[in-house]
Amino acid sequence: MFLRRPVMDIEGWSPDNPIKKESWRTVLTLAYQSLGVVYGDLSTSPLYVYRSTFAEDIQHSESNEEIYGVLSFVFWTLTLIPLLKYVFIVLRADDNGEGGTFALYSLLCRHARVSTLPNGQVADEDLYEYKRDGISSANQGLGLGLSLRSTLEKHRLLQKMLLALALIGTCMVIGDGVLTPAISVFSAVSGLELVLSKHHHQYIEVPVACIILFLFYLQHYGTHRIGFLFAPVVIAWLFCISAIGVYNIFHWNPHVYQALSPYYMYKFLKKTRRGGWMSLGGILLCITGSEAMFADLGHFSQMSIKIAFTCVVYPSLILAYMGQAAYLSKHHIIESGYHISFYESVPEKLRWPVLAIAILAAVVGSQAIITGTFSIIKQCSALGYFPRVRIIHTSSKICGQIYIPEINWILMLLCLAVTIGFRDTKHISNAIGLAVITVMLVTTCLMSLVIVLCWHRNIFLALCFILFFGSIEALYFSASLIKFLDGAWVPVALSFIFLVIMYIWHYGTLRKYEFDVQNKVPINWLLSLGPNLGIVRVRGIGLIHTELVSGIPSIFSHFLTNLPAFHQVLVFLCVKYVPVPHVRPEERFLVGRIGPKDYRVYRCIARYGYRDIQMDDVMFENDLVCSIAEFIRSEGTECDDGLVDLDNDERMTVIGTASTYSNGKRMCEDNDDLFEEATSTTKLTEISSPEVTRKRVRFLIPESPQINSNARIELQELMEAREAGMTFILGHCYVKAKMGSNLIKRIVINTCYDFLRRNSRGPAHALCFVRASTLEVGMVYHV
């Protein structure tokens, strides 16, 4: 057994861990970093909001009713959606620090049994994450709230609709990750129109934007490095636009603050009518990037994101928009011949420096939603709704900071395609507007359910929430949807593609699991083989991977007919994700026995949250063997604590990782001369060697009178088997549609799902084992 020092304290997480209690210094540091990651996109919105709003639907007139009305809409939209809805309400609905559309869905799955995960267990509801939320059948609320929960749990169609809603929001976030960098960079580069001739500008703008978009490459450096690198740029940009805004207010129109009154919104719509309604698609862009506050929550903390927005971003944006409106209220004819532009309101002597800062800020803005996209895809992949991808953890301290290479490069290519294809901000702004408002509508719908089912508030409060914010967002949604043919079709097309991928992967995974369940081997078949299972039992531990949480997988019988010998200790290993962000180390494993004791056949279920990091091969093997040893010891002392009844023929015991229990075995290094006998109160510890030194470990059996002789013999055999070696046996399944299936099913299973399976990564726990100790056995599944 070899030990190496882990890069991250993976198993050290705990809700009660004092490390999680952030100091003000940590909060302010995260707030500083969030400016460079979360708010880059939102901060650059002044570059294109007025330009998009006055593109064609309305005209800037001498009466200033249009510009005042737009300013009023921008002010109240920024106040009601990002500030009131997200900062004060939605951020409170974090799933233990994790945000995003799928985190809301996961939160709902814990409070109502609406999850479509196939291998869920009643024992999962005993996890700490369920109990800390106060989830029990007795406190699920009364009256209409209880009726709503019961209705969702009874009707499978409603559960599928809820999942579809969450997936649509998730896919729109991915589409937003494609469109946001394009419009941010394109709008910044558009400032070249004021310093170049129109003939040269049209040939330079697109190539420069594409070159800047290649900075997707910076994502692999990690959120914390990008945050420290980009935060000064965003701070400089916010200071710049707020200072220019203050200058324009006092220099051109000190009374522009009067336009903040909602009365100007009424006058605007009364005068412009249909044109004003259609222009709402441009006004909507002032909140582009607001969803990143929630999606990127796992990278930072709730308090840090709130402080950065309320104290820095929000006042800077309001001053910037007021300054632009003040300038435009005195300039009704744009001399340059171009449409209304942010750079028109910038003093001429400052245009070059502001252009440089704007381009840098746009680069930062292009990274904001990408980090949120990484988090959401990781959640979907962990819960079986997206093909497995390579996930790189870029921080040794904050496990939510990740990088996904495949997704990063796909987003970059799609972003370049959008930029080259449209070549202007008009069509891109129409596209991004629909994507943004769709995500917000989905968040509003899910949030209303969270208020009732998770927070146990009155259902009328949830109705007020969805009616108030839903009506505002529905108004913007209608204005964006009417421009479907003018670019708004792009996020719909992108979302449809990703939604099809998610559905095919989820459908194929469910059918594969159903095949395993329907073809389980009965326990009587195992008992009929006898203790030797009808074959030669050799020294060592055999780990058979299975998705089943109960019963014997059919692939095991396939193993026995193809292998002349098998290991003396056999473990059916199931590694599954549950709809919680974290599973505490002391609740990591469920361990049980299959058949009589002399068969030496065990079942071990390793449970992870969708935000957990799976351990490396050494740590995982150590904890796995120790959990089985602890199970044997607990049986030997007749301890019933932590027993869970899962089936009539199995009883599972909740066992923690090696560092979470004190009674048990001790692991020592082979070159250590201190092979002392451990007492029953000796704490089980793992001795880590330096990175350059690799040592074998062995177990010492405690000389405790509480452990009977049979348990001691079983522990001795487990120790000998571990020292002989461990083999990971993986069933390589080929999923095919069964005979008689219709054409659509054959295409989905035989072509699409097979393509995704071949091009996705294997299970993370399979990849961590040394290839030399991994045995793959092929089998065809007809589903």
From TrEMBL:
The chain crosses the membrane at residues 67-88, 162-189, 201-219, 226-250, 275-295, 307-327, 352-377, 398-422, 428-453, 460-482, 488-505. It is found in: Cell membrane; Membrane. It is a multi-pass membrane protein. Its main location: membrane. Keywords: Ion transport, Membrane, Potassium, Potassium transport, Transmembrane, Transmembrane helix, Transport. One of its GO terms (molecular function) is potassium ion transmembrane transporter activity. Pfam families: K_trans, K_trans_C. The keyword Ribosomal protein does not apply. Residues 30-527 form the K+ potassium transporter integral membrane domain. Potassium transporter. PANTHER family: OSMOTIC STRESS POTASSIUM TRANSPORTER, POTASSIUM TRANSPORTER 8. Belongs to the HAK/KUP transporter (TC 2.A.72.3) family. This is Potassium transporter. The lineage of its organism: Eukaryota, Viridiplantae, Streptophyta, Embryophyta, Tracheophyta.
